[in-house]
């Protein structure tokens, strides 16, 4: 009798092993399985709590490994300026991201989280990263290949910090420069914005041949991109941030929607919804456009993410009825909610709404399927943890050279000389003494603008880079003195005999609503600096701004005017062109108005009467004499010699 008992025990043991072995094979963990098979398998295993957790994105300041594990959180972000430590190294970033990721992997199903950051002009939150020109400047280059290469460099610098997801690019079509986010827009013309969506190919990688339209694609070692802000964010009434875009269907689909067509064709992984409204309906609650148009008509298969506290702002005031906001946002088609702090309230409300069948389980499954599709496509399940293999990419020399190239190509020459046959630029590298003046000449923070280290940007040496002043000093001849005075007075100008002056003025940094501006004037004392300096000596004015500003009153005082936009950390690109090592090639991607009373005014409008029209941009004419031919140190001596000889000859003739 003992033998049969042993046999039954052995059989049960074998069955147990067989059952365990079968359970260990999970299709969603098998990279050889098709993505849709993996999604279906994983969705079928998930509880409601695990599904809603995937739809939740929280800020790093409230995240921990335990929070990730206990609430099944699907995503974390760094808000503007949110860093593990001041001047954090790549190792500090990677260690932080991995600590959070280990919490996610410790859950029952081990679904990795995805970490996102606003790398909107380089990995701009991170100290020592290369900060590229903002989009308004890149639009002036008209160079999609350049923008694609910037995307490639940005992807590497984002990966250097262990992060696989960026909330970029902004593909808004800014129709009013009074909008505080206009510098995030490539152009007032949707065609230019469409061309610049090539940055997605740089961030995510080239799409394989025969790739299905609408399905996200992210190559190995690349980052997921995010086209934003869907839709009409650049067309709000009077350029007021988060306001109402009043527009007919033809205008919406013809002006603001086209960049999304291109982004989806290029495999963009995610789309962020706009705070703004279209004809009075909040985009975060707009089912017709988010689900009906973006998902159904355009066949977008990635996930839709809210903006920061975006669903809260469905109501006025924000957060007045949070449960309704959760309902309206998710039912409109938002898949992942950037909560970002009160995640327990969001999870509780979403769970309750599903249990009450106000939000359907099919809507939840659609949202989670889209999130998982991006995670599977990126290879997050196979490689969830970051390492330091990309650490040397942060602020890499080649990336800084690329940024310098972008600065050169973004500069727009608006005026060059006060007479038709006499150019002022390029400037001579040899001169008796050069004055550099203005609030923006020696201020790296002003040069970078908003979304640079901090959300609002900053002033001074906020990170590693080259100011325009330092760039000028390194460009001119060794024997040419460069004097810097931020705001010289009349007595200073009279005491010094300058060959010429470069005045660098513009806007102070800003972001979003803080940047809304009905005046669009140069930061004080910029106008006085222009008047004082340019009245005393021939001068070139460089404007550092995120949009056109009032400049017409000062135009007669200056010999040359250059729009430098927000060039970023590589100020050497400005000096490269001012002193003639490279030519001016930039063309206005925005109309430069005469007065704010004309706004909004875009190319093609009936009342179009600009100071400088859309597409304007001078080039230096090599066949014409320039200021450099008359004021370089060697030429000045030659002119003095000829003047002396002429005087002597005149005296001799008079005596004869």
From TrEMBL:
Encoding gene, per UniProt annotation: LOC123070932
Assigned EC number: 3.2.1.21
Cleaved signal peptide residues: 1-23
Similarity-based family: Belongs to the glycosyl hydrolase 3 family.
Protein name per the record: beta-glucosidase
Glycoside hydrolase family 3 C-terminal domain span: 411-618
Key words of the record: Glycosidase, Hydrolase, Signal
Gene Ontology biological-process annotations: carbohydrate metabolic process
Organism listed in the record: Triticum aestivum (Wheat)
Enzyme type, top EC level: hydrolase
GO MF term (any one): beta-glucosidase activity
Catalysed reactions listed for this entry: Hydrolysis of terminal, non-reducing beta-D-glucosyl residues with release of beta-D-glucose
Domain Glycoside hydrolase family 3 N-terminal: 47-374
